[in-house]
Design goal:
Radius of gyration: 25 Å
Strand content: 15-25%
Oligomer: single chain
Number of helices: 10
Strand order of the largest sheet: 4-3-7-12-9-10
Number of strands: 13
Helix content: 25-40%
Structural class: alpha+beta
């Protein structure tokens, strides 16, 4: 039944929906800077449906679903929860683009155009090729939801993808492809003869299926069962966040130096400045025209407001460690623009885009905005960490006095 007499109403079947307040609430609730984002997802989304959608897409590498190619549906007259429905599945099973013959199932690299598309946690703020899906980011950033996703993914892997040592005759996908080929081959040949190939090499159905089997399924099995196994990425241990990287979640003290008088003394645990440093939540920095970092910045600091040649901000983040025996490996997750030197209890543990001694007016090499908004994972030494009070310190460095820095840490 169609109701009404204007175009807007003809687009509504059975129920006339006025306004988009519920959709606006979803956009706000899923925003990267919302400190209550996890609670919003748990309260407003059909969690089993969302988890299943994410896991199924990971199985066949549906990388074109982050910023488009899906439907968002709310059961308005029922439980009021949101679900995601798929649409447009052409870029799946390893295809790397619409104008390439390349088929691959293990690309975790930040390669332009297809960055991270093979990663099981693809689509987040730190692993995406074409934009962030805030729902993906919220699920993967919330431990209980991430664990649900991983469990569901493993279930689907065992049922459909199957381990690398599965006998060929027992493999689900290969068997199903062969069944479909027997039914479709004649029609596919007629279609190919009539229309040819839109790009690349002319492939018949059999050749294309062989490419999926050899170049996608074989790689995907190793990638998900071995490369991203618990043993490979963490030795089976539990991952614990010592310092949160969620915007606004962590408070730091900061200082803009106008000379090199402090040296690196400010990176030590016991450093006590003569005048207390101001404090503020991460991220720390500025953007003259808020575009790229509007969801990330929480504390505005412009070094050039302090002195004409200043490019640096010193940042100190205290944190506590209970049992040292529980720490096997440390990973520093950072978003930065443009460079930094990181210290753990006075010991340098990482740096990016800075060479040599870092002075108060040292310029860093440029770090593109598209890369700056993504977390970079850096394995660092845990030898300097101690039981009790610790301090993670950053010398954040801009590429120049007219550039806009941002710095984030998890």
């Amino acid at each position: 039944r169609l109701a009404g007499g204007v175009a807007h109403d003809f687009n509504n079947v059975l129920t006339i929906i006025k306004g988009n307040a519920d959709l606006a609430a979803v956009v706000a609730g899923l925003a990267l800077g919302n400190p209550n984002r996890a609670e919003f997802v748990l309260d407003n989304f059909d969690i089993p449906a969302v988890i299943n959608y994410l896991a199924a897409g990971t199985l066949f590498q549906d990388f074109d679903r982050t910023v488009k190619n899906y439907y968002l549906y709310r059961d308005t007259n029922g439980d009021g929860q949101w679900q995601v429905f798929p649409w447009d599945k052409d870029l799946t099973f390893g295809l790397q683009g619409l104008t390439t013959d390349l088929v691959q199932g293990n690309n975790d690299l930040p390669t332009a155009g297809s960055a991270y598309i093979g990663h099981p946690l693809f689509g987040t703020s730190d692993r995406n090729c074409c934009g962030v899906n805030n729902l993906f980011d919220a699920v993967f950033d919330t431990p209980v939801l991430r664990e649900m996703f991983l469990r569901r993914l493993r279930t689907l892997m065992d049922e459909f993808l199957q381990p690398p040592d599965t006998p060929v005759a027992e493999r689900h996908f290969e068997t199903r492809f062969d069944e479909l080929a027997a039914t479709l081959s004649a029609d596919a040949a007629l279609d190919l003869a009539r229309w040819g190939a839109g790009f690349g090499t002319l492939q018949n159905l059999s050749t294309a299926i062989d490419a999926i089997k050899a170049n996608y399924l074989a790689q995907r099995r190793v990638h998900l069962y071995e490369t991203h196994s618990i043993d490979a990425i963490g030795g089976g241990g539990e991952l614990t966040t010592l310092i949160s990287g969620a915007p606004g979640a962590t408070t730091a003290s900061y200082f803009v130096p106008t000379d090199n008088g402090l040296g690196t003394s400010w990176t030590q645990i016991g450093f006590a400045p003569s005048t207390p440093w101001p404090q503020g939540p991460f991220g720390i920095g500025y953007e003259d025209q808020p575009v790229d970092y509007v969801d990330l910045l929480r504390t505005a600091v412009r070094p050039q407001d302090v002195c004409a040649t200043c490019t640096s901000v010193f940042i100190r983040v205290p944190f506590e460690v209970g049992d040292l025996g529980e720490i096997e490996n440390l990973t520093l997750r950072v978003k930065y623009d443009d460079g930094f030197v990181a210290y753990l209890n006075g010991v340098e543990v990482a740096r990016r885009n800075v060479t040599g001694a870092a002075a108060f007016d040292t310029p860093a090499a440029n770090h593109p905005d598209t890369a700056a908004v993504a977390f970079e994972d850096i394995a660092i030494s845990s030898s300097a960490i101690v039981a009790g009070a610790n301090v993670l310190a950053f010398h954040a460095i801009n590429s120049g006095v007219i550039s806009s820095p941002i710095f984030m840490v998890r």
